[in-house]
Write a structure and sequence with these properties.
The protein is of the alpha+beta class. The chain is 20% helix and 25% strand. A six-stranded antiparallel sheet has the order 14-15-11-13-12-16.
């Protein structure tokens, strides 16, 4: 039946119908645009309606057009994400996203670009935010929208301008299936798995190799085709993995394919999971930033992982402040690439961890604060009242929770292999006044023992998994090796080896004067002993004004 609009039956040409659809829906929000679908009738366009509540779809034919119709889009998709589907094939001149209809229209500069796009996605499914979408020609020959009445069109124009600014320059080296990625201002560790999660949101990643060059962490990432690699470069180049740091600089590699020999934390061939895990020397450990120059490792300004577009807030708002906050240039955030919040191990968006299989006789909030504090600032700890071998540990930032999870899960503590996993809780609740708690919940928000309060803290350069060797610092000059050995032995630990660092760690005191503090390595019998020694000896009082600082070391003596 013909749909009356304000008491009148409307029949329009193709372009008029598109304009009417935009203007008529302006007052209802973009999700209500084109509730009536435009279908061809004898060469003209008539607004029609169906009696049921099913979404009306634009009837399409197979004739080539520079307007491409995209179906089954997610309801929360942005104009930018839709535009990025078309960018590898040529200039995008207009976009219309009908979120309530799960449809979008993309206008290319010419039919050649549109034809290439349709042909490409006919052989491989396009994806937006992990959802398969379907690409075909539209029966519209152009998108004609009313820019004065549609807020949705204003955001579309902004996204178009941003996309055009990103594609304005020449690509150095020319498009290729292999991307070279350089991480600038790397304050926090970036692992191969983090890179895989980020880059696989654009398309299937085949291989990754990480390495150090010129004192910076780099990676080579291979996609199955040039189009996907080009889309990844356009979307991710210049974005920050974390707020104000860990910036992705992406260029095309001269290599056309990667030869991966090992599947481990430094290289991965996702097409061949049976590869051995043998070592690959000379690459940067994802758990530590040694080798970075001070300007990179000490870069300040991290406020919490702010966000790639679409990664939580769009990657905006991001993983906790996060890994992503406007895809157009700056952080990985804004009108984003549809990454949503990164989920699962090793990276999650939450700050609360569930720790299980604890020794309920030995476990305490203070001990868990000290152990988990090696990997981030612990704000609250709650040992469950009715299940005391379980605890909740809340970290200050999501990436700190992920570091703790990746390093402490399955580690032996008090003779038991603890399990660490993300909790469903967003915060650890303090007990209500008068509620019995027996000291099982503690708030450490204002603790002076936090290791990472200062943005860009050098402690981020020294994050390692539990090991039998401990790094000791803040040792005053008058304390001897024998003093430290004795302190450990009195606490019940057998010191196998000890070594002072030859250099002194100069620290500026509260009075502004420089004080020399020594550092040392102490080796215990095994990792389990070292974990217990760290819990017991961290903040051990060496003198009236000095407390020992203990962390895990990558070194051996």
């Amino acid at each position: 039946m013909t749909l009356p609009v304000t008491g009148t039956v409307y029949s329009h040409t193709l372009d008029q119908a598109m304009t009417l659809a935009i203007v008529a829906g302006a007052g209802r929000g973009s999700e209500e645009l084109m509730t009536a679908a435009a279908v061809p009738t004898n060469g003209a366009m008539t607004l029609t309606a169906d009696n049921n509540n099913d979404a009306k779809k634009v009837k399409l034919d197979s004739k080539p057009s520079r307007v491409v119709h995209i179906r089954n889009i997610p309801t929360d998709v942005s104009e930018t994400e839709v535009i990025h589907l078309g960018i590898p094939f040529g200039k995008v001149t207009n976009v219309l996203v009908l979120k309530g209809k799960n449809q979008a229209f993309l206008e290319m500069a010419d039919e050649v670009a549109a034809t290439q796009m349709v042909a490409y996605f006919a052989n491989g499914t396009a994806q937006l935010r992990g959802r398969s979408v379907y690409v075909q020609f539209s029966n519209h020959k152009e998108l004609k929208t009313d820019q004065t009445h549609s807020n949705a069109n204003a955001s579309a124009q902004a996204a178009l301008q941003a996309a055009q600014s990103m594609t304005g320059g020449d690509t150095q080296g020319g498009p290729n299936t292999v991307l070279r990625v350089i991480i600038e201002h790397m304050v926090y560790p970036v692992t191969l798995d983090v890179l895989q999660q980020i880059f696989s949101r654009v398309g299937k990643v085949l291989k990754i190799v990480t390495f150090t060059k010129n004192s910076s962490f780099q990676a080579l990432i291979q996609y199955p085709d040039v189009v996907t690699a080009q889309a990844a470069k356009l979307q991710l180049d210049g974005q920050n993995i974390y707020n104000s740091c860990c910036t992705l600089r992406i260029e095309y590699s001269k290599l056309t394919s990667l030869n991966v020999k090992y599947n481990n934390d430094k290289s991965r061939d996702y097409t061949n999971p049976s590869l051995p895990t043998g070592g690959s020397p000379g690459m940067l450990s994802p758990f530590g930033l040694h080798g970075l120059t001070p300007s990179l490792a000490g870069f300040a300004g991290m406020g919490g992982m702010g966000g790639m577009p679409g990664m939580g807030g769009g990657m905006g708002g991001g993983m906790g402040g996060v890994p992503f906050g406007g895809l157009m240039p700056g952080n990985l955030s804004g009108a984003g690439i549809g990454m949503g919040r990164l989920q699962g191990n090793p990276l999650t968006g939450g700050t609360v961890l569930l720790v299980s299989n604890l020794d309920e006789e030995m476990a305490s909030p203070e001990a868990l604060f000290t152990l988990f504090g090696v990997y981030g600032d612990v704000t609250r700890v709650k040992i469950l009242f009715n299940k005391k071998d379980n605890a909740l540990v809340q970290m200050a930032e999501p990436h700190q929770a992920n570091l703790a999870l990746s390093h402490l899960d399955k580690v032996k503590v008090w003779g038991r292999q603890i399990r660490v996993m993300p909790s469903k809780h967003q915060v650890v609740q303090m007990p209500k006044e008068g509620q019995p708690d027996a000291g099982l919940t503690k708030d450490f928000t204002n603790s002076p023992l936090h290791r990472f309060k200062k943005p860009g803290s050098k402690n981020y350069q020294n994050i390692y998994p539990p090991s039998a060797t401990l790094h000791l610092s803040n040792i005053p000059p008058h304390v001897t090796e024998q003093d430290i050995r004795q302190a450990f032995e009195v606490a019940g630990f057998d010191v196998k080896n000890f070594k002072f660092f030859p250099k002194r760690d100069a620290i500026e005191g509260d009075n502004g004067q420089r004080r020399d503090h020594r550092m040392a390595l102490v080796q215990l019998s095994n990792v389990e002993d070292a974990v217990m020694a760290l819990i017991k000896m961290h903040n051990y009082q060496l003198s009236d004004a000095n407390h020992l600082r203990v962390s895990f070391s990558k070194s051996t003596i």
